[in-house]
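Sequence, please.
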C-alpha cells in the first residue's frame, strides 16, 4: 500500500515507525501536491492532519478525496478548528481517526491503517453522526468527535460532560437540538461500536471484551447490546455485519 502523508514532521516520523509489511510512506509537499497525487491515483491512501493546511488547502484535499473515494486516516491534534474540519471530512464518508499524543502508539496506528481497506465500525458510525455535531459549541464538538479517535473513553457520562465545561442539562439540550438522543446514548453508542471487531470478527471472550472496553462487568455490556442491538454480545456476528451493525447504532443514536 502506497500511503501519502500530509503531516507535521514529528507525526510523520511516528507513523513511519508504525508501518508494516508492504506499506510504504511518501511525504506530500503540500495540499496542492497531495490533491494532485490523489486525483492521479499515485497513492492508495492518505494520512492527513487537517489542521496543518489553510482553508483553501483543506477544501482542495477534501474535494480530491471525495471525487476519488480514496481512503483517509486523520492523524490530528484535536482542537476546535480541527474538530470542525473532521466533522466536515467524515460527514457521510467513513474515515478513520487517531488523536496525536493521546493514543498514537504503533499498535493503534497499525490497526487504523489496516482499517483503511474496510472502515471500522467507529468510523462508519461517526460518518453517520458527524452532521449532528456541526452546531455544537466548540468544547462539546471536540469531546464528541474525540470519542471516535481515542482508545480510552470516559467510563460514565459525567466524565464526558466534564470535558465540555458545560452543565449536564446544557449538554443534553445541545445534543437534542442536534438530533442526538443525549450524552448517555452517544457515549453508549461510541463504546459499543468499539466492541464489534473483537467480539464479532475476532470472537474474543465477552468477559475480556467487557473489561477491555470499560464495562465493569459482562452484565453491563450485555445490557447495552440487548438494548441497542437487540441481541446478546455473543450473537452480534450472527445477526449483523459491520455495516448493518453501525447502521443499527446510528438509528439508536440519532433522534
Amino acid at each position: 500500500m502506497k500511503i501519502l502523508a500530509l503531516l507535521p514532521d514529528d507525526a510523520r516520523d511516528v507513523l513511519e515507525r508504525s508501518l508494516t509489511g508492504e506499506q510504504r510512506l511518501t511525504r506530500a509537499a503540500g495540499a496542492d501536491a497531495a490533491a494532485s497525487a490523489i486525483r492521479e491515483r499515485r497513492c492508495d491512501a492518505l494520512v492527513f492532519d487537517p489542521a496543518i493546511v489553510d482553508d483553501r488547502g483543506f477544501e482542495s484535499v477534501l474535494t480530491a478525496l471525495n471525487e476519488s473515494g480514496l481512503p483517509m486516516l486523520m492523524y490530528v491534534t484535536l482542537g476546535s478548528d480541527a474538530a470542525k474540519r473532521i466533522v466536515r471530512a467524515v460527514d457521510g464518508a467513513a474515515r478513520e481517526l487517531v488523536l496525536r499524543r493521546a493514543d498514537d502508539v504503533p499498535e493503534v496506528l497499525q490497526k487504523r491503517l489496516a482499517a483503511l481497506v474496510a472502515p471500522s465500525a467507529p468510523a462508519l458510525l461517526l460518518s453517520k453522526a458527524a452532521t449532528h455535531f456541526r452546531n455544537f459549541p466548540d468544547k462539546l464538538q471536540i469531546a464528541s468527535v474525540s470519542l471516535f479517535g481515542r482508545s480510552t473513553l470516559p467510563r460514565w457520562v459525567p466524565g464526558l460532560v466534564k470535558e465540555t465545561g458545560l452543565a449536564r442539562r446544557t449538554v443534553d439540550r445541545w445534543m437534542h437540538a442536534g438530533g442526538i438522543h443525549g450524552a448517555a446514548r452517544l457515549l453508549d453508542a461510541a463504546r459499543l461500536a468499539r466492541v464489534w471487531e473483537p467480539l464479532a470478527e475476532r470472537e474474543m471472550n465477552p468477559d475480556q471484551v467487557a473489561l477491555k472496553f470499560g464495562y465493569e462487568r459482562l452484565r453491563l455490556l450485555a445490557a447495552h447490546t440487548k438494548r441497542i442491538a437487540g441481541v446478546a454480545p455473543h450473537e452480534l456476528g450472527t445477526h449483523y455485519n459491520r455495516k448493518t451493525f453501525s447502521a443499527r447504532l446510528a438509528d439508536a443514536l440519532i433522534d
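The first strand starts at residue 2 and ends at 6.
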